[in-house]
Write a structure and sequence with these properties.
The chain is of the alpha/beta class. The protein contains eight helices and five strands, in the order βααβααβαβαβαα. The protein folds into two domains: 144 residues, 3-Layer(aba) Sandwich (Ribosomal Protein L4, Chain: A); 49 residues, no CATH class.
Amino acid sequence: MVQVNPVENLKGVDGFSINYYHLTDAFLIQKVNSFRFTGKAQTRADVAATTAKWFRQKGTGRARQGARSNPHMTGGGKAHGPQPRFSPRKLNKRIKRSAWLSALAWHLERGTFFGVDDAETDAMLKTREVAAMLDGAGLYDRTLICCLADSPLHRCGRNIRNVAVLTPERLNVRDLMLADCLLCTNGARRELELRATAIRSEVGLRRRALNLAAADLLSESDNTTEGLAGAGGDGSKEATDE
């Protein structure tokens, strides 16, 4: 049986005060930007009709008429009909980051943040196994699973009703607020902690990744230098002894 444990603290999110105003703004703007107005009505320029005058201007006793494609004619174009458009609303970067941290802190405060070990989920190759794990833990209703892209949960959990599967890079405010609970693997949790720490320190994800890579290179070079120094010291000692 897979153990699903509640998560009580998350590095980078602990101590963050929830800003409900930023949550509301981010949620509504993301909802509006998800709409795609793709409806298109034919105007008088799009209708394939004759451009000849329908009947002569004078002498008929009727109202003067022009082309057959006019909106008031049968089969003519539509006046002021829907047209494809997309004008996204923008959100301040600080508000967006604050809303993302607030959404994670909201799940931690409510006690709906759960974690699972990667070693236990790597053996799940069937959708029914993931469903049984969620059903056994009581997380079957509107659950958001956050895992890495190479995790079996990313493939096996997508076909379950009321269950959404996202990677840490695609975790957003709207899905976090619509979910009743958040289930996160250990690998995804470490990634979330890295991102939250970078946001709180205002360093930026890219700059923080470069700093971590530089620190790793420096540590490797220091270890290599120490190894070469140790090898050189032994050689010089042997030469002196000889």
